[in-house]
Amino acid sequence: MMRTIRIGSGAGYSGDRIEPAVELAEKGDIQYLVFECLGERTVALAQQARMKDPDSGYDPLLEERMRAVLAACAASGIKIVTNMGAANPAAAATKTAEIARSLGLSSLKIAAVIGDDVLDACRERDLPIMEFEGSIGLLGNRLLSANAYLGAEPIAVALGGGADIVITGRASDPALFLAPMIDAFGWAMNDWNRLGQGTVAGHLLECAGQVTGGYFADPPYKDVPDLARLGFPIGEVGEDGSLVITKVEGSGGAVTARTCKEQLLYEVHDPRQYLQPDVVADFSQVTVEEIGRDRVRISGGRGTRRTGTLKVSIGYLDGYIGEGQISYAGAGALARGQLALKIVRERLKLTGVAAGEWRFDLIGVDALHGANLSAKACEPYEVRVRVTGRTESLREAVRIGNEVETLYTNGPAGGGGAWKSAREVVAVGSVLLPRELAKPSILFIGG
Amino acid sequence: MKLREIAHSRTGDKGDTSNISVIAYDAGYYPLLLKQVTSERVRAHFAGVVDGDVVRYELPNISALNFVITKALGGGVTRSLALDGHGKSLSSALLDLEIDAAADT
What we know:
The structure holds two protein chains of two kinds.
Chain A: E1 4-11, H1 19-27, E2 32-35, H2 42-52, H3 62-76, E3 79-82, H4 89-102, E4 110-114, H5 119-125, E5 143-148, H6 153-160, E6 165-168, H7 173-185, H8 192-205, E7 233-238, E8 243-247, H9 257-264, E9 274-275, E10 280-282, E11 287-292, E12 295-299, E13 302-304, E14 309-329, H10 333-350, E15 357-363, H11 370-374, E16 382-391, H12 394-405, H13 407-410, E17 416-434, E18 441-445
Parallel strand pairs in A: 1-2, 2-3, 3-6, 4-6
Antiparallel strand pairs in A: 1-7, 4-18, 5-14, 7-8, 8-12, 9-10, 10-13, 11-12, 14-16, 14-17, 15-16
Chain B: E1 7-14, E2 17-24, H1 30-36, H2 39-45, E3 54-59, E4 64-69, H3 90-94
Antiparallel strand pairs in B: 1-2, 2-4, 3-4
């Protein structure tokens, strides 16, 4: 009989709900639980934290998530894979070992995958940045971090070495799921079609609730039951790469052909070439078939040889953003909101606030999609003025919110709920690094 | 009728590029999507919202189109001044597109 594993997806982003992962660990009949928690910018922010404190730099919810699931996972032998290591996987592994001990689970073997930090290699090579004209050298001291998207191999090696918990920094999201398949089935790292189909599985699972009915409901066209208790997904993967997406019975949400199709194309560009560190996956021939309640079979994922480069996410300081908001309601709200924007524009000019880029929005009218698409809409009961600008200094950014706030006493009638902010921007870009320059390795802690 | 009557949609973002899927509720509507939801119409629909090119990919197996739009997100979510820096709400705007149900596909 063909061997099958069940992989649960316990988080789709760093701040995600905690209880659905507990539900998976306790009732999901899973062998692996994956937490994808590392957004594009998160590593750069974590790197900043690590520079201030060498023992920090990992996901702030690491402790809460581990405490919530470790006992249930240990009891059922469920292995955990997560990128909650962020900028410091070794410290995250040490912390997790400490949490395990405090729960009386000191036999758990924990591994950190390190080597995604390729800042030095990138600086030496002055690689071109993909998002705009220029290369890394241009960023100078503003460059904070450079982390390569590592593949499934080091994670699979750590699992094969007996790790119960594998903690990575930057790794490709689907690779977190592909690694358990390689561990369980011994797929070869050049079995491109299986790696491609496994990537389809990882891609569908990596955003957790987004394939079980989250980010989907649009009543009355697309209704989803019980979103407050949304269940997170389980991928049932066979040795031959066959895949069924499902969820814990009785949990909220729904797994349907529609939810799976939406997630299949989420953040995908050319479906024939979904570039991954382990494989170039081809989603173009995928088929989706409902085979039971909350059970959807996904077939036809393929793959071709991986490329010679790894995508590297770079984080850099990119100036400051200042912002101010204030609301108007009732009769004439729109006219007063428009007057408020006119006043702030004039004030910013009069007082000489310097910004390279501005936005003047009316939330409730044109803030999301601009003037064209909103032109035919009827007048709203309330509007919210929003002014934001990009500046070179924090001091300048603060002045933008102030000019909105002063509308309280100097602007149109009935302005309420003013709010302002000024923040430093950590932006991300990407470069391509020759694959051999990233050298992942594994650190075992405890056990 | 609106595109919303025959298709659903989801937006994703990578850097300054947005992708918007358009998925037929029923495979029978797919030819209508192919014919009427063109790159040109999508670009025109989002005039003033996005600045870049629109490329369309076709996925007949799942009766879906995937639109990839560059320079769509004010530089990307990490640096955008926009309220919705991810562009998550763009899919709902696209579903407002007018479709001629009587047209010959």
